[in-house]
Amino acid sequence: MNFKTPSIKRDLRQEISDSIIAALEKGVAPWQKPWQAGAFEMPMNPTTGKSYRGGNALHLMVTGMRNSFEDPRWITYRQAQESGWRVRKGEKGTQIEFWQFPKNQADGHEESRDDAPESSRDRFLYRVYTVFNASQIEGIPAYTPRMRQQWEIVQGAEAIIQNSGARIIHDQPDRAFYNRLADTIHLPPRAAFDSAANYYGTALHETAHWTGAAHRLNRETLNNSHGFGDIEYAKEELRAELASVFLMAERGIPHNPDSHAAYVGSWLTSLRSDKHEIFRAARDAHKAADLLLALEHCKTMDQALAHINNSHSSLENQAINIDTQIIPSMPARGNSPELEMEM
Fold first, then answer.
1. Which residues have CB under 8 Å from 172's CB, separation 6+?
2. I want to staple 221 with a disulfide (CB 3.0 to 4.6 A). Which of 88, 236, 238, 298 is the partner?
3. How many other CB atoms are there within 10 angstroms of residue 213's CB atom?
4. Contact 267, 24 (CB under 8 A)
């Protein structure tokens, strides 16, 4: 009598979450690693020109760091072949996930993926892709990173801050925070920072908090936080940190993670308890970054919000844009901590 060994269903989302947790524990996650101007770029697909998004982007960053890949380009085997390139024999690919929602679904955000009842899961498809870094591919043209002048970096960072419309007050000796009640960002004077990069890194972090206000993105982790030490505070800090990392990578701003090292323990606590949390955090962070970038081109907040709501669910689809395997769905405290989000 033959007995089949039952197959174990792979939980890719858990694997990705574990990989990012392991990187955090070793101090080599993207948002814990310092980089110089222009030395870090978001993972992108060279055949579409689109950046990867959310948890996939973080997973590719961590994988790239672990394997010392300096090239930000990631592509599928089929796309490499169609471009006349060849994945080297023996190279191991990296799997990422993608969720596809019907066009008539009003909101394709990730919370629907995590919490949707079984009866509604036939409304979307879960897909798995295997991608290879350009360093693993023969024939692909050499990558030339974009080199930015110092003035260009400062100008790009200042444009985000100024076009946001956020009210920034330089009235603190050594603290930085967003005050929810007053809807204001408080920073030390610019001269108190040892470099323009450290000033803009801090300012972008606090401006990311600002995006979560009820009349903007209405982010639960901001609006349900009661201060340093509670789980929502830690989750919101992770979102602000990731958003600032995404923006700094976009504009070539150097990164210094030292000021946020105190939050690593609380980040790990929330990530270990929920395999979906890093995906939610990255999704929210990308949406915060998208809003700030949209405000550079949109005349009003309403226009910017409409723009990102219309485009947010389709961006990852554009990054891959090929046929794939379809598999089943996977089941320091301030005086008023309730009102302030510190850096």
1. 186, 187, 188
2. 236
3. 16
4. yes
Measured in Å, how far apart are the chain's first and last C-alpha atoms? 64
Nearest to 99, CA basis, from 77, 119, 128, 74? 128
Name residue 123's amino acid. R
Q: Tell me the two tokens of residue 50.
A: 């689109």
Cross-strand pairs, 167: 184
Interatomic CA distance for residues 292 and 271, integer angstroms: 26
Please state, in angstroms and rounded to a whole number, the distance separating the CA atoms of residues 286 and 283.
Answer: 5
Burial track 233-243 (b if 16+ CB lie within 10 A, e otherwise): bbbbbbbbbbb
Q: Is 142 exposed, middle or buried (0-12, 13-18, 19+ CB in 10 A)?
A: exposed
> Which amino acid type is present at position 75?
I
Structure-block tokens of residue 30: 């993207």
Which among 184, 71, 183, 81 has a CA at the least distance from the CA of 134? 71
pLDDT single digits (tens) 257-301: 776 666 788 888 889 989 999 999 999 999 999 999 999 999 899
Whole-prediction pTM: 0.82
- Dump pLDDT digits (tens) for 104-133: 444 433 333 443 334 444 566 778 889 999
Asked if residues 68 and 277 have their Cβ atoms less than 8 Å apart, the reply is no
Query: Distance between CA 82 and CA 321 in Å, rounded?
Result: 13
Other CB atoms within 10 Å distance of the CB of residue 326: 10
Contacts of 220 (CB under 8 A, 6+ apart): 232
Instruction: Pinpoint the alpha helices (H) of 252-314.
Output: 264-272, 277-294, 301-311
| Type of residue numbered 256 | N
Q: Find out whether 164 and 107 touch, Cβ atoms under 8 Å.
A: no
